[in-house]
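Session log. Operator J.P. requested a structure for one protein chain; no other inputs attached. Running the standard single-chain path with token output.
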Amino acid sequence: MRIVRLANFVTPRSGGLRTALRELGAGYAAAGHEPVLVIPGPHAADEATPQGRVVTLPGPLVPGVGGYRVLVDRARLARTLAALRPDRLEVSDRSTLRWTGDWARRAGVPSMMVSHESLAGLLRAVPGGALAADRLNARSAAAYDRIVCTTAWAAAEFARVGAPVTRAPLGVDLAFFRPGRHDPALRDRLAGPHEVLVVHCGRLSTEKRVDRSVRAVAAARRAGLRATLVVAGDGPLRERLTVQAARDAVPVRWLGHVAGRDRLAALLATADVVLAPGPVETFGLAALEALASGTPVVVSGQSALPEVVGAAGAVVPGDDAAVWGAALAEVADRPVADRRAAARARAERFGWPAAVAAFLAAHRAGVSEGDRVPQ
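Structure written below.
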């Protein structure tokens, strides 16, 4: 199958979505298929990569979101799709590319949308947000032949509007992210020998709730835990968070964007605890990478992460800083060998081969295999 994949909001520094696109594309290619990824960029490009062919179309920057671009030229994208002649269309975008579902239907191409974020979660605090999310989710379900969600939590908002959903989890590179990357020298550079090394890994934007991580460490320190917070990531809230950390007297090491997977893997394996406080995560690849590295994760109970983390960490139900601090201290107090073994064992349930197989099964479901759809 030639699987043409569309995605917006992907940059060289973007995190989970970029990882998922790369790993799924590489898996499709290894299984004998022909993946083609179409993304926005500063200029047009067409290159062969390990994840398959990557076609870049010019797309404008979205103001105020830290370098993300979008595909807005519908006519050019439609011409590109027609020239690519896909056997399947896979769209990783909840709104701006919904029209491509109609294009696929007119062209006779089976299509599916992968839900990488939760509209219900993002609109939770907005008056009338639940109704708006239901309306938009119903439109997405009508636009595509199939909706794919990575967790039951992510699927729930579609079930609420009566839309059928296919479940397909994401995965983690278990050979790359591993406990053996623990680096004592890195630990010494980031925190003192008697400090608990706490890591938050993710974009410094509103939905990631980095403020919760700062307040959690502040609360844990007030309760007597010696802890240092390391933040790996950058974004529009950097200045505000720096002020917050200074006000709360939290020692924070701001690493910015961590270039290179080796450095990230070493950081995750060296941490004592990772915090993943975002309330709208539909899967949480960074948290899963931490587990694969042997590091337990404290997560928000408002997200899908409890499904991923299981007992290899802790779940905090709300926003109370004292509760977050207590959960952090409890996890840090577990015997090191036990908590690291439990984290790794949990991650081993989520390999990329199984994820690729699930996504390919979703592409095949209900459609005869082998013949190109007439264009």
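Operator note: The two ends are 15 Å apart (CA to CA).
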